[in-house]
Amino acid sequence: MVVVGEEVRLLCTGTACTDRLVSVNSRVKKRGIGERTRAVEDGSGKEGEEEEEDDDVEEARQRRSSCEPEMSDHGCIHLNNFKAAKGIQPYKVIHSYFVTSTSTEARAVSCLCHTCKTYKDRLHSCLHCIFFGCYVKGHIQEHAKTKKHFLAVDLCYGNILCFQCGDYVYDRELLSVAKAQWSESAKSLSFGEFYRAWEPTQIEAELLRKHPRRRRVVENSTIGLRGLINLGSTCFMNCIVQALIHTPLLRDYFLADRHHCPQPTRCLVCEVSHLFQEFYSGSKAPLTLHKLLHLIWTHARHLAGYEQQDAHEFFIATLDVLHRHCEAAPILVKDNPHHCNCIIDQIFTGGLQSDVVCQACNGVSTTIDPFWDISLDLGTAAGASGSDNSGPPTSLLDCLERFTRAEHLGSSAKIKCSNCQTYQESTKQLTMKQLPIVASFHLKRFEHSSIQDKKISTFISFPEQLDMTPFMSHRRNGNNNSAMIEGLPKNGEDMTFSDNRYSLFAVINHEGSLETGHYTAFIRQQRDQWFKCDDHLITRAKLKDVLTSEGYLLFYHKQILEYGRNSKV
């Protein structure tokens, strides 16, 4: 807390916090500091009143000091005292070696909680001594209490935690150190400079002066909700557009005017950018997507025509066209030649690891392929042994467990092992090597066979919050279990400090049969407000309605993002 004149500035360093000013409601302010000073100087005013006011000031000061962090005009007192005694070198060392370290192996070997020997649960480093402790399990708190070391560094973001203040604290000098080291880390990894905060140009500043009206988005605001006109069996397109428009990170990208193109008339990204502006203009009138439909038909000709299309097929085609139309040539990401840095790959692309294990010599052949979505079977499938049958799944977690289960390929699918150079039976297992920011799940409800085509209407439950950690490569692959030390992969493989929890933000449903049907969508607006989008009609919905719906396409967004770590979003 920093006192500025007669106001108190509360500074919150959390990811969703902003600075806000809170007026001091005390008798000192009511009477006026200036008036009191003049009364003392000219001798007016009674002595008893002055003494009473001094008592009020002292009482207010004591109340504040007993319940608020010890912050001065120059930040946290405890951090300032530490800097005066030891300087900023301890912070620079911790930030350089463990926060912005470009060596994953070095971080994996060193960054373990000294108490529980794991690397997860919000690891912190003591600023006073060599100690790593996890915050969630309270081990860094125990160390602070026992050793009286009240300052720690969050190893994910580099923020300073003061246990005496009871919060993360701001320090301008250390922030400059962190920014410089992030910049150096980015250069060493060939990421280039990170994006800075928006500063209006002269033209933008002039536009702001000409249009001073500002819109305030409140908690129950419905800005961003627009119905979409059905152009004739185009409900599949309307649902996909609603899901994309309400993808949080995609929304932030386009509303920040990050896309610039020399050929806007033929560019799908330009049209999507225009749609975002229309959705958030404040108008409630339904929109017509004739131009977007024309661009899709032009660049994905297999979808041309007014007959009903599959929403999943349209989703993949739309991502593909958007990917191709992103500005400039894609810059390939280091260690992944299939992954570029366009906004679509930044948000939707993950890495799927395939491990084929020879049953004769246990040799492993591993490949990693990019994916935009995960298609999950709903019918009865062969078990891990290949002989017995397991029943159909009843939940999204069942589907993911079966998707990442080792499968015996059988004698009819022998492969030549690169290790023993003979044709042998093998097992194959798919796992998540790298998770995307937006995880898209396709429940395969339409089954096509030589005998008949049918729709699977089995209810599949899906959660509002989803943790993908159990399906990661280092957790799921049984062949790597011996390399694990309390959940830590050997040699730093898959070593990350990211959180793998997701939140549901859109669900697309198909109502009807395989031959005739209609698509609708549930989308999340603001925090926990849900709406049902049925073409031009938008109605409020309850979370229960969403979670009990049939579900065809499920969209989850990562809860915690590491901005600036290795992406440009």
TrEMBL record:
GO molecular function annotation: cysteine-type deubiquitinase activity; zinc ion binding
GO CC entries: nucleus; SAGA-type complex
Chief location: nucleus
Ranges for region Disordered: 35-71
Alphabetically ordered keywords of this record: Hydrolase, Metal-binding, Nucleus, Protease, Thiol protease, Transcription, Transcription regulation, Ubl conjugation pathway, Zinc, Zinc-finger
Highest rank taxon of the organism: Eukaryota
Biased composition (Acidic residues): 48-58
Protein name, per record: Ubiquitin carboxyl-terminal hydrolase
